[in-house]
Amino acid sequence: MRVLGIETSCDETAAAVVDGSRGLLSNVVSSQLHLHRKFSGIVPELASRAHLQKIASVISAACEEAGSKRLDAIAYTQGPGLMGPLLVGKVAAQTLSRILGVPLVGVNHLEGHIFATELTEELRFPLVALIVSGGHTDLVLSRGPGRYRVLGRTRDDAAGEAFDKVARMLALGYPGGPVIDRRARSGDPRAVDFPRPFMPGTWDFSFAGLKTAVLYHLQRRGGRKPEAQETDDICAAFQEAIVDTLVEKTLRAAREFKVKHVALGGGVAANSRLREMLAARGIDNGLRVVMPPRGLCTDNGAMIAQVALHRLSRRRVDKNFRSDPAMTFHSWGA
Ligand SMILES: Nc1ncnc2c1ncn2[C@@H]1O[C@H](COP(=O)(O)OP(=O)(O)OP(=O)(O)O)[C@@H](O)[C@H]1O
Ligand SMILES: [Mg+2]
Q1: What residues have their beta carbon closer than 5 A to ion ligand 2?
Q2: Which residue of 195, 206, 290, 331 is surrounded by the most CB atoms within 10 Å?
Q3: Is the dihedral of CA 203, 194, 155, 163 positive or negative?
Q4: Distance (Å) from CA 293 to ligand 2 centroid
Q5: pTM of the predicted model, to two decimals?
Q6: pLDDT at residue 9 above 50?
Q7: Ligand 1 in reach of 9 Cβ (< 6 A)
Q8: Please, what are the domains in the chain?
Q9: Which ligand is nearest to the CA of 165?
Q10: 80 upstream amide cis, omega within 30 of 0
Protein backbone atom coordinates (compact mmCIF):
# COMPACT_ATOMS: atom_id res chain seq x y z
CA MET A 1 0.00 0.00 0.00
CA ARG A 2 1.48 3.33 -1.13
CA VAL A 3 0.02 6.65 0.06
CA LEU A 4 0.60 10.23 -1.04
CA GLY A 5 0.28 12.60 1.94
CA ILE A 6 -0.47 16.30 1.36
CA GLU A 7 0.00 18.89 4.11
CA THR A 8 -1.00 22.55 3.74
CA SER A 9 -2.42 23.52 7.14
CA CYS A 10 -0.13 26.49 7.77
CA ASP A 11 2.97 27.82 5.99
CA GLU A 12 4.55 24.69 4.53
CA THR A 13 3.41 23.23 1.22
CA ALA A 14 4.36 19.60 1.68
CA ALA A 15 3.87 16.23 0.02
CA ALA A 16 5.38 12.80 0.63
CA VAL A 17 4.96 9.21 -0.46
CA VAL A 18 4.99 6.49 2.22
CA ASP A 19 4.90 2.78 1.48
CA GLY A 20 3.36 0.49 4.10
CA SER A 21 6.24 -1.98 3.89
CA ARG A 22 9.16 0.08 2.53
CA GLY A 23 8.56 3.23 4.60
CA LEU A 24 9.30 6.79 3.52
CA LEU A 25 9.94 7.00 -0.25
CA SER A 26 9.95 10.78 -0.66
CA ASN A 27 9.40 13.92 1.40
CA VAL A 28 9.18 17.37 -0.18
CA VAL A 29 8.60 20.52 1.89
CA SER A 30 8.39 24.02 0.43
CA SER A 31 8.54 26.58 3.22
CA GLN A 32 6.95 30.03 2.96
CA LEU A 33 9.04 31.47 5.79
CA HIS A 34 10.62 34.11 3.54
CA LEU A 35 7.12 35.48 2.80
CA HIS A 36 5.98 35.78 6.41
CA ARG A 37 9.21 36.71 8.15
CA LYS A 38 8.78 40.46 7.76
CA PHE A 39 5.36 40.24 9.45
CA SER A 40 6.77 38.18 12.40
CA GLY A 41 3.96 35.67 11.90
CA ILE A 42 1.79 33.93 9.31
CA VAL A 43 -0.45 36.06 7.06
CA PRO A 44 -3.27 33.64 6.08
CA GLU A 45 -4.09 35.21 2.70
CA LEU A 46 -0.43 35.20 1.62
CA ALA A 47 -0.17 31.60 2.77
CA SER A 48 -3.19 30.49 0.69
CA ARG A 49 -1.82 32.12 -2.45
CA ALA A 50 1.64 30.63 -1.98
CA HIS A 51 0.12 27.14 -1.46
CA LEU A 52 -1.81 27.54 -4.73
CA GLN A 53 1.37 28.46 -6.58
CA LYS A 54 3.41 25.57 -5.14
CA ILE A 55 1.06 22.66 -4.62
CA ALA A 56 1.26 21.09 -8.10
CA SER A 57 5.07 21.21 -8.31
CA VAL A 58 5.50 19.91 -4.74
CA ILE A 59 3.21 16.93 -5.42
CA SER A 60 5.00 16.20 -8.73
CA ALA A 61 8.39 16.36 -7.02
CA ALA A 62 7.24 13.96 -4.27
CA CYS A 63 5.92 11.44 -6.80
CA GLU A 64 9.05 11.72 -8.94
CA GLU A 65 11.36 11.29 -5.94
CA ALA A 66 9.38 8.21 -4.89
CA GLY A 67 10.33 6.67 -8.26
CA SER A 68 6.97 5.11 -8.95
CA LYS A 69 3.72 6.29 -10.49
CA ARG A 70 1.62 3.86 -8.42
CA LEU A 71 -0.44 5.40 -5.62
CA ASP A 72 -3.06 3.42 -3.69
CA ALA A 73 -4.57 6.34 -1.74
CA ILE A 74 -4.38 10.11 -1.29
CA ALA A 75 -4.26 11.61 2.20
CA TYR A 76 -4.56 15.26 3.12
CA THR A 77 -4.64 17.37 6.27
CA GLN A 78 -8.26 18.00 7.13
CA GLY A 79 -7.52 20.26 10.12
CA PRO A 80 -6.88 21.94 12.43
CA GLY A 81 -5.23 24.76 10.52
CA LEU A 82 -5.87 27.88 8.46
CA MET A 83 -9.05 27.61 6.37
CA GLY A 84 -7.66 28.89 3.03
CA PRO A 85 -4.45 26.82 3.10
CA LEU A 86 -6.37 23.70 4.18
CA LEU A 87 -8.76 24.10 1.22
CA VAL A 88 -5.88 24.19 -1.27
CA GLY A 89 -4.59 20.82 -0.01
CA LYS A 90 -8.05 19.32 0.14
CA VAL A 91 -8.98 20.28 -3.43
CA ALA A 92 -5.65 18.96 -4.75
CA ALA A 93 -6.18 15.67 -2.88
CA GLN A 94 -9.80 15.30 -4.03
CA THR A 95 -8.82 15.96 -7.64
CA LEU A 96 -6.03 13.38 -7.60
CA SER A 97 -8.18 10.82 -5.85
CA ARG A 98 -10.92 11.19 -8.52
CA ILE A 99 -8.50 11.09 -11.45
CA LEU A 100 -6.66 8.03 -10.12
CA GLY A 101 -9.78 6.35 -8.72
CA VAL A 102 -8.15 5.73 -5.34
CA PRO A 103 -9.48 6.37 -1.80
CA LEU A 104 -9.25 9.78 -0.16
CA VAL A 105 -8.34 10.01 3.53
CA GLY A 106 -8.75 13.18 5.62
CA VAL A 107 -6.24 13.28 8.47
CA ASN A 108 -6.07 15.18 11.75
CA HIS A 109 -2.90 17.29 11.71
CA LEU A 110 -2.16 16.61 15.40
CA GLU A 111 -2.55 12.86 14.94
CA GLY A 112 0.01 13.34 12.18
CA HIS A 113 2.46 14.97 14.59
CA ILE A 114 2.20 11.91 16.88
CA PHE A 115 2.76 9.47 14.02
CA ALA A 116 5.77 11.32 12.56
CA THR A 117 7.83 9.20 14.99
CA GLU A 118 6.63 6.01 13.33
CA LEU A 119 8.51 6.87 10.15
CA THR A 120 11.72 5.90 11.94
CA GLU A 121 10.71 4.10 15.16
CA GLU A 122 7.99 1.85 16.46
CA LEU A 123 5.18 3.45 18.48
CA ARG A 124 4.04 1.24 21.35
CA PHE A 125 0.72 1.65 23.13
CA PRO A 126 -0.75 2.73 25.46
CA LEU A 127 1.23 5.95 25.42
CA VAL A 128 1.16 9.53 26.55
CA ALA A 129 1.91 11.94 23.70
CA LEU A 130 3.08 15.51 24.11
CA ILE A 131 2.30 17.55 21.00
CA VAL A 132 4.12 20.88 21.09
CA SER A 133 3.82 23.09 18.04
CA GLY A 134 3.12 26.60 16.78
CA GLY A 135 -0.59 26.35 17.55
CA HIS A 136 -0.90 23.56 20.14
CA THR A 137 0.36 22.16 23.41
CA ASP A 138 -1.68 18.99 23.86
CA LEU A 139 -1.14 16.14 26.30
CA VAL A 140 -2.87 13.07 24.88
CA LEU A 141 -3.46 9.56 26.21
CA SER A 142 -3.64 7.07 23.36
CA ARG A 143 -4.60 3.40 23.53
CA GLY A 144 -3.80 2.84 19.82
CA PRO A 145 -4.15 4.46 16.39
CA GLY A 146 -7.46 6.36 16.28
CA ARG A 147 -8.02 6.04 20.06
CA TYR A 148 -7.25 9.29 21.86
CA ARG A 149 -8.18 11.15 24.97
CA VAL A 150 -6.95 14.72 25.23
CA LEU A 151 -5.89 15.12 28.86
CA GLY A 152 -4.93 18.78 28.66
CA ARG A 153 -4.08 21.61 26.32
CA THR A 154 -2.87 25.16 26.60
CA ARG A 155 -5.25 27.77 27.96
CA ASP A 156 -3.42 30.61 26.18
CA ASP A 157 -0.18 30.55 24.20
CA ALA A 158 1.05 27.35 22.60
CA ALA A 159 4.65 26.38 23.42
CA GLY A 160 5.88 27.32 19.92
CA GLU A 161 3.96 30.58 20.06
CA ALA A 162 5.67 31.43 23.37
CA PHE A 163 9.09 30.75 21.78
CA ASP A 164 8.12 32.95 18.81
CA LYS A 165 6.82 35.83 20.98
CA VAL A 166 9.81 35.84 23.33
CA ALA A 167 12.14 35.84 20.32
CA ARG A 168 10.25 38.86 19.01
CA MET A 169 10.74 40.68 22.36
CA LEU A 170 14.46 39.98 22.05
CA ALA A 171 14.48 41.04 18.37
CA LEU A 172 15.77 37.63 17.33
CA GLY A 173 13.53 37.21 14.28
CA TYR A 174 10.92 34.65 13.22
CA PRO A 175 10.43 31.77 13.84
CA GLY A 176 11.76 32.10 17.35
CA GLY A 177 12.12 28.45 18.38
CA PRO A 178 15.22 27.53 16.38
CA VAL A 179 17.09 30.77 17.25
CA ILE A 180 16.30 30.56 20.99
CA ASP A 181 17.41 26.92 20.93
CA ARG A 182 20.72 27.99 19.35
CA ARG A 183 21.33 31.04 21.56
CA ALA A 184 20.45 29.10 24.73
CA ARG A 185 23.43 26.79 24.16
CA SER A 186 25.79 29.64 25.11
CA GLY A 187 23.59 30.90 27.97
CA ASP A 188 23.22 30.09 31.67
CA PRO A 189 19.75 28.65 32.45
CA ARG A 190 20.10 29.77 36.12
CA ALA A 191 20.81 33.39 35.20
CA VAL A 192 17.14 34.37 35.63
CA ASP A 193 14.62 32.52 37.78
CA PHE A 194 11.56 32.46 35.50
CA PRO A 195 8.35 30.83 36.84
CA ARG A 196 7.44 27.22 36.02
CA PRO A 197 3.68 27.20 35.32
CA PHE A 198 2.98 23.64 36.55
CA MET A 199 -0.75 24.35 37.18
CA PRO A 200 -1.41 21.57 39.73
CA GLY A 201 -4.81 19.86 39.57
CA THR A 202 -5.12 20.06 35.79
CA TRP A 203 -3.28 18.63 32.79
CA ASP A 204 -3.70 21.98 31.01
CA PHE A 205 -0.81 24.33 30.30
CA SER A 206 -0.47 28.12 30.40
CA PHE A 207 2.54 29.99 29.09
CA ALA A 208 1.21 33.56 29.00
CA GLY A 209 2.55 34.29 32.52
CA LEU A 210 6.01 33.01 31.67
CA LYS A 211 6.03 35.15 28.53
CA THR A 212 4.99 38.20 30.61
CA ALA A 213 7.75 37.41 33.14
CA VAL A 214 10.28 37.72 30.29
CA LEU A 215 8.68 41.03 29.26
CA TYR A 216 8.86 42.40 32.86
CA HIS A 217 12.46 41.26 33.13
CA LEU A 218 13.29 43.26 29.99
CA GLN A 219 11.27 46.30 31.16
CA ARG A 220 13.10 46.34 34.51
CA ARG A 221 16.24 47.03 32.54
CA GLY A 222 14.79 50.46 31.68
CA GLY A 223 14.64 49.84 27.94
CA ARG A 224 18.36 49.03 27.72
CA LYS A 225 18.93 46.41 25.01
CA PRO A 226 20.51 43.26 26.51
CA GLU A 227 24.10 42.50 25.53
CA ALA A 228 24.75 39.32 23.53
CA GLN A 229 25.63 37.25 26.63
CA GLU A 230 22.57 38.52 28.51
CA THR A 231 20.37 37.60 25.55
CA ASP A 232 21.84 34.10 25.56
CA ASP A 233 21.15 33.84 29.32
CA ILE A 234 17.53 34.99 28.94
CA CYS A 235 17.05 32.46 26.10
CA ALA A 236 18.52 29.66 28.22
CA ALA A 237 16.48 30.57 31.34
CA PHE A 238 13.21 30.94 29.41
CA GLN A 239 13.79 27.68 27.51
CA GLU A 240 14.63 25.84 30.74
CA ALA A 241 11.39 27.04 32.38
CA ILE A 242 9.20 25.98 29.46
CA VAL A 243 10.97 22.64 28.94
CA ASP A 244 10.89 21.84 32.69
CA THR A 245 7.14 22.42 32.72
CA LEU A 246 6.47 20.32 29.61
CA VAL A 247 8.63 17.42 30.78
CA GLU A 248 7.34 17.40 34.37
CA LYS A 249 3.68 17.32 33.33
CA THR A 250 4.28 14.64 30.70
CA LEU A 251 6.05 12.38 33.20
CA ARG A 252 3.33 12.96 35.80
CA ALA A 253 0.69 11.96 33.23
CA ALA A 254 2.60 8.78 32.35
CA ARG A 255 2.75 7.91 36.08
CA GLU A 256 -0.90 8.74 36.74
CA PHE A 257 -2.21 6.71 33.77
CA LYS A 258 0.33 3.91 34.31
CA VAL A 259 1.79 3.94 30.81
CA LYS A 260 5.34 2.98 29.95
CA HIS A 261 5.61 4.77 26.60
CA VAL A 262 5.90 8.48 25.84
CA ALA A 263 5.89 10.08 22.37
CA LEU A 264 6.86 13.62 21.45
CA GLY A 265 5.70 15.50 18.35
CA GLY A 266 5.25 18.93 16.71
CA GLY A 267 7.67 21.68 15.72
CA VAL A 268 8.92 22.33 19.27
CA ALA A 269 9.90 18.63 19.47
CA ALA A 270 12.95 19.76 17.45
CA ASN A 271 14.15 21.69 20.53
CA SER A 272 17.45 20.21 21.69
CA ARG A 273 16.93 20.87 25.42
CA LEU A 274 13.42 19.34 25.35
CA ARG A 275 14.71 16.24 23.56
CA GLU A 276 17.63 15.92 25.97
CA MET A 277 15.62 16.44 29.18
CA LEU A 278 12.68 14.23 28.18
CA ALA A 279 15.00 11.41 27.10
CA ALA A 280 17.10 11.60 30.29
CA ARG A 281 14.20 11.93 32.72
CA GLY A 282 12.29 9.26 30.81
CA ILE A 283 15.12 6.79 31.45
CA ASP A 284 15.20 7.78 35.16
CA ASN A 285 11.48 7.02 35.34
CA GLY A 286 11.68 3.67 33.51
CA LEU A 287 9.87 4.99 30.41
CA ARG A 288 10.49 4.41 26.72
CA VAL A 289 10.54 7.86 25.10
CA VAL A 290 10.32 8.16 21.31
CA MET A 291 10.47 11.25 19.14
CA PRO A 292 10.65 12.04 15.41
CA PRO A 293 13.99 12.89 13.80
CA ARG A 294 14.37 16.70 13.84
CA GLY A 295 13.48 17.06 10.15
CA LEU A 296 10.07 15.43 10.66
CA CYS A 297 9.03 17.50 13.72
CA THR A 298 7.68 20.48 11.76
CA ASP A 299 4.88 20.09 9.22
CA ASN A 300 5.34 17.50 6.48
CA GLY A 301 3.25 15.22 4.26
CA ALA A 302 4.91 12.01 5.46
CA MET A 303 3.22 12.11 8.88
CA ILE A 304 -0.16 12.59 7.15
CA ALA A 305 0.43 9.58 4.87
CA GLN A 306 1.54 7.51 7.88
CA VAL A 307 -1.77 8.13 9.70
CA ALA A 308 -3.67 7.29 6.50
CA LEU A 309 -1.91 3.92 6.30
CA HIS A 310 -3.39 3.04 9.69
CA ARG A 311 -6.84 4.25 8.62
CA LEU A 312 -6.70 2.24 5.41
CA SER A 313 -5.69 -0.86 7.29
CA ARG A 314 -8.83 -0.33 9.37
CA ARG A 315 -10.82 0.33 6.15
CA ARG A 316 -11.99 3.78 7.26
CA VAL A 317 -11.74 5.91 4.14
CA ASP A 318 -13.59 8.93 2.94
CA LYS A 319 -15.96 7.48 0.28
CA ASN A 320 -17.29 10.00 -2.24
CA PHE A 321 -15.56 12.77 -0.29
CA ARG A 322 -18.08 12.58 2.51
CA SER A 323 -16.43 12.88 5.88
CA ASP A 324 -16.80 9.98 8.23
CA PRO A 325 -17.24 11.87 11.53
CA ALA A 326 -15.25 9.21 13.37
CA MET A 327 -12.15 10.07 11.39
CA THR A 328 -12.39 13.85 11.25
CA PHE A 329 -10.53 16.09 13.61
CA HIS A 330 -13.81 16.82 15.40
CA SER A 331 -13.46 13.49 17.16
CA TRP A 332 -10.09 14.56 18.54
CA GLY A 333 -11.42 16.39 21.56
CA ALA A 334 -13.68 13.53 22.65
N1 LIG B 1 14.36 24.00 17.85
C2 LIG B 1 13.18 24.53 18.21
N3 LIG B 1 12.96 24.87 19.50
C4 LIG B 1 11.77 25.39 19.89
N5 LIG B 1 10.75 25.61 19.05
C6 LIG B 1 10.92 25.28 17.75
C7 LIG B 1 12.14 24.72 17.27
N8 LIG B 1 12.00 24.50 15.92
C9 LIG B 1 10.75 24.93 15.59
N10 LIG B 1 10.10 25.39 16.68
C11 LIG B 1 8.77 26.01 16.75
O12 LIG B 1 7.83 25.13 16.18
C13 LIG B 1 6.73 25.88 15.69
C14 LIG B 1 6.31 25.36 14.33
O15 LIG B 1 5.89 24.03 14.51
P16 LIG B 1 4.78 23.38 13.57
O17 LIG B 1 5.24 23.54 12.15
O18 LIG B 1 4.46 22.02 14.02
O19 LIG B 1 3.60 24.38 13.93
P20 LIG B 1 2.27 24.63 13.17
O21 LIG B 1 2.04 23.51 12.21
O22 LIG B 1 2.32 26.02 12.66
O23 LIG B 1 1.21 24.55 14.34
P24 LIG B 1 0.18 23.32 14.61
O25 LIG B 1 0.93 22.05 14.37
O26 LIG B 1 -0.22 23.53 16.03
O27 LIG B 1 -0.93 23.53 13.64
C28 LIG B 1 7.15 27.34 15.67
O29 LIG B 1 6.50 28.01 16.72
C30 LIG B 1 8.66 27.26 15.92
O31 LIG B 1 9.19 28.38 16.63
MG1 LIG C 1 2.12 21.48 12.79
Answers
A1: 133, 299
A2: 290
A3: negative
A4: 15
A5: 0.93
A6: yes
A7: yes
A8: 2-116+296-333 (3.30.420.40), 124-291 (3.30.420.40)
A9: 1
A10: yes
